[in-house]
């Protein structure tokens, strides 16, 4: 959440980040568009939407879908995680998640943070999509046998295919 502070003279200052935003670049903000129950062939998932875009990502969550019904249409704040087959450094292209509607299959974006202990990178993958001025961050665990997160650098543009089962964990 962005807070606005006021100078003692009564004039508003510029927006300030909350400590949680400053501490964790992996926190994603959007809207809980739907919570879909499991079927015989498909696990339960939520639809995480980014206002002002066509993004409607299907993400699994440990929270029971019945518990999420009252929150439909409201702000969703949490962490998106996926398992990447391999992250390749690329020199062209933008930041995106494919497909725009459905489960993430391909992620491309700039590296915001390296997490060596998890062999993961945090990628800004939303392109121009943002909520509260924040990018769409995704924590990508690298699963290629010989690839280490520390071999990459913050700011690099990377592209990767991701395994089925991307998740969303609510932080509040």
Could you characterize the architecture of this molecule?
This protein is mainly beta and 172 residues long. It has one domain. The chain is 5% helix and 47% strand. It has two helices and 13 strands; from the N terminus they run ββαβββαββββββββ. The strands form two sheets. It has a five-stranded mixed β-barrel. Strand 1 and strand 2 form a beta hairpin. The chain starts with a strand and ends with a strand.
What's the layout of helices and strands?
Elements: E1 2-6, E2 12-17, H1 19-23, E3 27-36, E4 45-49, E5 56-59, H2 65-68, E6 75-89, E7 96-98, E8 101-102, E9 106-115, E10 120-124, E11 137-142, E12 157-162, E13 167-170
Parallel strand pairs: 5-8, 6-11
Antiparallel strand pairs: 1-2, 3-4, 3-6, 4-5, 6-12, 6-13, 7-9, 9-10, 9-12, 10-11
Ranges where pLDDT stays below 50 over 5 or more residues in a row are: 1-21
Number of discrete domains? 1
Give me the count of strands: 13
State mean pLDDT (0 to 100 scale). Answer: 86
Q: Which strand-content bin applies to the residues? A: over 45%
> What distance lies between the first and last C-alpha atoms, to the nearest angstrom?
11 Å
Assign a percent range to the helix content.
Answer: under 10%
Major sheet: size, sense and barrel closure?
Answer: 5 strands, mixed, barrel
Strand order of the largest sheet: 6-11-10-9-12
The 3D shape can be described as: globular
SS-based structural class?
Answer: mainly beta
Number of helices: 2
How big is the Rg? Answer: 17 Å
């Amino acid at each position: 959440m962005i807070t606005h502070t006021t100078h003692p003279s009564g004039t508003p200052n510029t927006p300030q980040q909350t400590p949680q935003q400053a501490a964790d670049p992996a926190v994603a903000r959007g809207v809980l568009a739907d919570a879909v129950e499991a079927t015989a062939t498909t696990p339960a998932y939520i639809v995480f939407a980014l206002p002002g875009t066509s993004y409607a990502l299907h993400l699994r969550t440990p929270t029971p879908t019945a518990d999420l019904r009252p929150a439909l249409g409201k702000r969703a704040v949490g962490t998106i995680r996926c398992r990447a087959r391999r992250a390749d450094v690329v020199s062209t292209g933008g930041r995106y998640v494919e497909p725009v509607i459905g489960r993430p299959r391909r992620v491309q974006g700039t590296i915001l943070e390296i997490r060596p202990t998890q062999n993961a990178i945090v990628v800004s993958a939303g392109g121009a999509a943002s909520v509260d001025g924040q990018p769409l961050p995704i924590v990508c665990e690298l699963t290629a046998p010989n690839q280490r997160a520390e071999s990459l650098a913050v700011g690099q543009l990377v592209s990767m295919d991701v395994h089925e089962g991307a998740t969303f964990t609510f932080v509040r």
